[in-house]
Specification:
Length: 350
């Protein structure tokens, strides 16, 4: 009986000490959790070694940024790095940036798309607000006070300084910084433009169109029964993202003769379910995910994306190697700045 009375206080003492220790650990954990600043992950990736390894450079973007909130034409890359528009902020990451990877400046219109120019950053939204910022400054001003056309879809500046604006009524161009405008192409569903060796190609009515006189006249060059969704400049020519309405498959084509003829380079990807998702919209019209594929060239290598991830080809598209698997079934958008590759996962679609 005496032994029992001796052990009971001892047990109570041990329990008291243990509970005190647990409470202190809990308090310390709460302080650590509250004191630690979180940051977004899996928003932006960067590779500096040709896609062999990838670094998450999301730190420095808004803490509450959702993984699928960066969409459409709210990002681009040029020789100065990657630019992303998030709400009323324009974020910039240089090719050699270290954590935190981003600097921020105030952006005047949170609904605008952004696009690069030779010495400007263009900002525009669908309803006609158009602004520009001279590189190295933080001052935004109207791009072209004489351009009142709404429904702007794209802005592009050629190497010679001619500026094209794509709208729901086609392409307009100015050769004198917006003092006068000319309607040079009539057609809906116009998309991005690309330039190589003085030749311009673009998308109109889901076909590739081509101009050899600085956009004065355009001719359709793709007539193979498929549809075209995007065009890019590559070394010595162009690359295009196409699709077949008959088989619902997506394709990649290149041209090295100034956009006259186009050759497929996706044979090595056809066995990897290189297929677009098709669904019906609210008004029962078929829609096809337009920006589910991205293609760039770095050195002699092609990089492309589809639902499986990022692939690289070192033999002009004959074979492809998976470099970075997709994240949460999202498809990457690819951008290049020098030899640095940026990848942004998104849901794609138009």
């Amino acid at each position: 009986m005496k032994r029992l009375f001796v052990f009971v206080p001892a047990i109570l003492l041990v329990l008291f000490l243990l509970s005190s220790f647990v409470l202190k650990e809990k308090d310390a954990g709460e302080k650590t959790t509250k004191g630690t600043k979180s940051w977004p992950v899996n928003i932006v990736f960067k590779s500096t070694d040709g896609g062999q390894t990838w670094q998450d450079i999301s730190k420095g973007l808004p803490e509450n940024l959702r993984k699928d909130s960066i969409k459409g034409n709210s990002f681009f890359a040029n020789d100065k790095g990657l630019f992303i528009r998030v709400g009323n902020g324009l974020y910039h990451s240089t090719p050699n940036a270290t954590a935190p990877f981003w600097t921020k400046e105030i952006f005047p219109d949170e609904h605008s798309s952004i696009a690069p120019g030779k010495s400007w950053i263009f900002a525009n939204n669908y309803w006609g607000i158009n602004l520009k910022k001279t590189s190295g400054t933080s001052v935004w001003s109207p791009i072209f006070e004489n351009f009142q056309e709404p429904r702007i879809r794209s802005v592009f500046e050629t190497a010679g300084g001619t500026i094209f604006i794509g709208t729901d009524r086609g392409f307009f161009k100015t050769a004198n910084n917006g003092k006068t405008w000319k309607h040079v192409h009539t057609g809906s569903l116009v998309g991005h433009l690309a330039e190589s060796n003085g030749v311009l190609v673009a998308i109109s009515m889901r076909k590739i169109i081509r101009s050899t006189d600085n956009g004065e006249n355009w001719a359709v060059v793709s007539s193979e029964g498929g549809e075209a969704w995007d065009v890019k400049q590559i070394k010595g020519g162009f690359a295009a993202i196409t699709s077949s309405s008959a088989s619902n498959t997506r394709g990649l084509r290149t041209s090295y003769d100034g956009g006259k003829t186009w050759q497929p380079i996706d044979a090595g990807l056809q066995g990897k379910d290189f297929i677009d998702s098709i669904w019906r919209t609210w008004n029962d019209r078929l829609s096809l995910q337009a920006f589910m594929t991205s293609i760039i060239q770095v050195g002699e290598n092609f990089f492309c994306t589809h639902p499986a991830g990022i692939f690289r080809s070192s033999d002009k598209g004959k074979t492809w190697k998976l470099l970075l698997p997709s994240i949460e079934n999202k498809v990457f958008n690819l951008f290049v700045s020098g030899n640095v590759i940026y990848a942004i996962p998104s849901k794609g679609g138009c």
